[in-house]
Write a structure and sequence with these properties.
Blueprint: H1 7-15, H2 17-29, H3 34-42, H4 50-68, H5 72-87, H6 93-101, H7 103-111, H8 118-170, H9 176-180
Length: 193
């Protein structure tokens, strides 16, 4: 990607980094319900808004990764931070990683005023290929997070069952045969004490 023909395109995108990242963030926030997206974009306190803060920190790093052709190890932490959040939210796998693909139209819109040459098309194709690779990595990270969530839920269910069984064994007033036996009629037979 560092070929001479790609350099003008990369420089044009690097010069527009701030605008591109802001637009990418805005489109990503639009994947949330309206009131949630508004809160995520407006709240500046990272403790009150960890999701918005994480997105604002991670997207510039991911854009640099796409632009600079960084390897997987360099973009994985930033990508993982976003995917972990989206894995515990009410997103399908496709919706959770769709934010990566939102970078494509943002880049195309940013380049719409630039003069396009054949080398630019090749460079753009290489950038889009990196975006695709990042999306695949995001999907792998998402699936690992979901597997871990299901593992935690299964362990919690096993723990609850164990505690219920233990409680049942330790309770001297509980007789397992009583719960299955039909209730005996009152000795007087008339239901009076």
């Amino acid at each position: 990607m560092k070929a001479e023909g790609a350099q003008p395109l990369l420089e044009a995108l690097a010069a527009k980094k701030g605008a591109i990242v802001r637009e990418w963030l805005m489109r990503t926030l639009q994947t949330y319900p309206e009131h949630t997206g508004r809160f995520l974009s407006q709240e500046r306190d990272p403790f009150r808004n960890p999701v918005g803060s994480t997105l604002k920190d991670a997207l510039p790093v991911l854009f640099e990764g796409v632009l600079g052709g960084k390897d997987t190890a360099q973009v994985t932490p930033a990508l993982d931070s976003v995917v972990r959040i989206r894995a515990v939210q009410d997103f399908t796998p496709g919706q959770a990683v769709a934010f990566v693909f939102l970078l494509r139209p943002v880049i195309r819109d940013a380049l719409s005023t630039e003069r396009q040459e054949a080398s630019d098309r090749d460079a753009l194709a290489a950038l889009e290929s990196r975006i695709d690779e990042m999306a695949l990595l995001a999907f792998d990270l998402f699936m690992k997070c979901r597997e871990r969530i299901y593992e935690i839920k299964a362990n919690e269910a096993r723990r609850r069952i164990f505690l219920l069984e233990r409680r049942h064994r330790l309770d001297p007033f509980t007789d397992p045969s009583d719960s299955e036996a039909p209730a005996e009629p009152h000795p007087r037979g008339n239901g009076l004490p």
